[in-house]
């Protein structure tokens, strides 16, 4: 009898816990106010930023982001639309920044005559930017700020 | 038994045909003894309207997207590729159909292009690009035909809608505005020089100027 009522109590507690969990509103930046057991409305698609102005890298190794739209750009075995402006020989006409010379290196550090196959697919690292409001905050600190904090007055 | 010359009936058929042509020529040369001149002129006029109207109707019927995509070569390859591009789907719903870009609008050029297109009918009948592999193989050559036509007529089919005079460069992205002022407005380049592969996928671009 005791065993039976204990079991009942467990069931009641679990049911209560699960419903309260289901009904709970976890307000996170990504989910918004949507309850956890529901799927919220899809966020609006935002257009690609198209200012054409170079953006500062957030850290030295960051692949530079693309400051223009790349919609419909074909990058495959047949051709690479990016290279029709950013290739070495095209930059005089296009005034676009040249593909970094590091992109001509194979994985053994040997320089090739043209862009290395492993660096051919630009958008694997370089991405266009959207005019979206970031849904979550970011407390990333730039290395220059860290350096100036460690050694005020700066150091080289 | 008399020998039957196997060529005899053939020769007589030819001879009869020749006789018919000669007779017809005589009828055409002689003035009519039955119909009045007015009736003949009127009949000729009406027949002219019917023939010309019929010709133009058929010509226009072959100048529609429905006709172009009637063959699977067009429907499954180039038309499918067009659909996600801005010339098919965009914010305002104004769109280009096949002949807008691939058939010149003025009459003589249109007829010239239509005569060239008879080779495409041949290609369809004999299946020159009836598989994806064959299409891929011929893709560069086919694209070259279009590029050279655009290059030769200064991208006329683009300019039927996109007029340089009506371009508001302040509404363009800085990149586009600079490029158009430097190369398009000066006449140094024409649309197709930079805008290849905007409506269909590109063929193997190695060796094409401006491409790697």
UniProtKB/TrEMBL annotation, chain A:
Gene3D superfamilies: Flavocytochrome C3, Chain A. One of its GO terms (cellular component) is periplasmic space. This is Periplasmic nitrate reductase, electron transfer subunit. Heme c 1 binds at residues 68, 82, 85-86. Electron transfer subunit of the periplasmic nitrate reductase complex NapAB. Receives electrons from the membrane-anchored tetraheme c-type NapC protein and transfers these to NapA subunit, thus allowing electron flow between membrane and periplasm. Essential for periplasmic nitrate reduction with nitrate as the terminal electron acceptor. Binds 2 heme C groups per subunit. One of its GO terms (molecular function) is metal ion binding. Belongs to the NapB family. Heme c 2 binds at residues 103, 122, 125-126. It comes from the Bacteria. Residues 27-65 are annotated as: Disordered. The keyword Acetylation does not apply. Residues 1-23 form the signal peptide. It is found in: Periplasm. It comes from Rhodopseudomonas rhenobacensis. One of its GO terms (biological process) is anaerobic respiration. Keywords: Electron transport, Heme, Iron, Metal-binding, Periplasm, Signal, Transport. Component of the periplasmic nitrate reductase NapAB complex composed of NapA and NapB. PANTHER family: PERIPLASMIC NITRATE REDUCTASE, ELECTRON TRANSFER SUBUNIT.
From TrEMBL, chain B:
One of its GO terms (biological process) is anaerobic respiration. Binds 4 heme groups per subunit. The chain crosses the membrane at residues 34-55. One of its GO terms (molecular function) is electron transfer activity. Its main location: membrane. Signal peptide: none annotated. Binds 4 heme groups per subunit. Heme 1 binds at residues 68, 71, 74, 120. Its cofactor is heme. Heme 4 binds at residues 191, 194-195. Heme 2 binds at residues 98, 101-102, 200. Heme 3 binds at residues 158, 161-162. The keyword Cell membrane applies. It is a single-pass membrane protein. GO terms for cellular component: plasma membrane. Pfam families: Cytochrom_NNT. Keywords: Cell membrane, Electron transport, Heme, Iron, Membrane, Metal-binding, Transmembrane, Transmembrane helix, Transport. Residues 31-205 form the NapC/NirT cytochrome c N-terminal domain. InterPro entries: Cytochrome_c-type_ET, Multihaem_cyt_sf, NapC/NirT/NrfH, NapC/NirT_cyt_c_N, NapC/NirT_cytc_sf, NO3Rdtase_cyt_c_NapC/NirT. It is found in: Cell membrane. Mediates electron flow from quinones to the NapAB complex. Belongs to the NapC/NirT/NrfH family. This is Cytochrome c-type protein. It comes from Rhodopseudomonas rhenobacensis.
């Amino acid at each position: 009898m005791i065993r039976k009522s204990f079991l009942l109590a467990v069931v009641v507690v679990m049911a209560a816990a699960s419903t309260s969990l289901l009904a709970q509103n976890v307000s996170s930046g990504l989910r918004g106010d949507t309850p956890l057991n529901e799927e919220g409305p899809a966020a609006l698609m935002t257009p690609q930023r198209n200012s054409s102005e170079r953006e500062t890298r957030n850290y030295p190794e960051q692949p530079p982001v693309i400051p223009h739209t790349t919609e419909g750009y074909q990058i495959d075995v047949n051709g690479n639309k990016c290279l029709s402006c950013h290739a070495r020989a095209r930059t005089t006409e296009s005034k676009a920044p040249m593909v970094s010379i590091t992109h001509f290196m194979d994985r053994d550090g040997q320089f090739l005559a043209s862009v290395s196959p492993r660096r051919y697919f630009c958008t694997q690292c370089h991405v266009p930017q959207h005019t979206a409001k970031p849904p979550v905050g970011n407390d990333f600190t730039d290395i220059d700020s860290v350096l100036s904090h460690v050694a005020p007055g700066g150091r080289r | 038994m008399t020998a039957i010359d196997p060529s005899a009936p053939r020769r007589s058929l030819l001879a009869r045909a020749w006789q018919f042509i000669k007779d017809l020529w005589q009828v055409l040369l002689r003035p009519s003894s039955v119909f009045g001149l007015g009736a003949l002129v009127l009949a000729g006029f009406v027949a002219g309207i019917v023939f010309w109207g019929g010709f133009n109707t058929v010509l226009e019927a072959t100048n529609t997207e429905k006709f172009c995509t009637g063959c699977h070569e067009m429907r499954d390859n180039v038309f499918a590729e067009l659909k996600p591009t801005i010339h098919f789907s965009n914010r305002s719903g104004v769109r280009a159909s096949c002949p807008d870009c691939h058939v010149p609008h003025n009459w003589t050029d249109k007829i010239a292009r239509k005569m060239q297109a008879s080779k495409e009918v041949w290609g369809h009948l004999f299946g020159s690009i009836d598989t994806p592999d064959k299409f891929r193989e011929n893709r560069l050559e086919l694209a070259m035909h279009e590029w050279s036509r655009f290059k030769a007529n200064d991208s006329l089919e683009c300019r039927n809608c996109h007029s340089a005079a009506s371009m508001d460069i302040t509404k363009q992205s800085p990149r586009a505005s600079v490029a158009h002022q430097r190369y398009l407005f000066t006449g140094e380049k024409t649309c197709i020089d930079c805008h290849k592969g905007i409506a269909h996928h590109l063929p193997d671009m190695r060796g094409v100027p401006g491409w790697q």
